[in-house]
């Protein structure tokens, strides 16, 4: 039997009511940003684990080397 898909750890689903509130807030912020000449960009919501891990290790090593 197929296993039911699960959402990734640290993420969550939003109900339609929550999405309406979130969209209102994001649309308001977006309109203000556009008013002042800002342009939208899109960045990945999730990264490859090896990329994230390598960056985290580098930051930790540089932190410890400073002290």
UniProtKB/TrEMBL annotation:
Keywords: Aminoacyl-tRNA synthetase, Ligase. One of its GO terms (molecular function) is aminoacyl-tRNA ligase activity. The keyword Ligase applies. Gene3D superfamilies: Bira Bifunctional Protein, Domain 2. This is Histidyl-tRNA synthetase. It comes from Saccharicrinis fermentans DSM 9555 = JCM 21142.
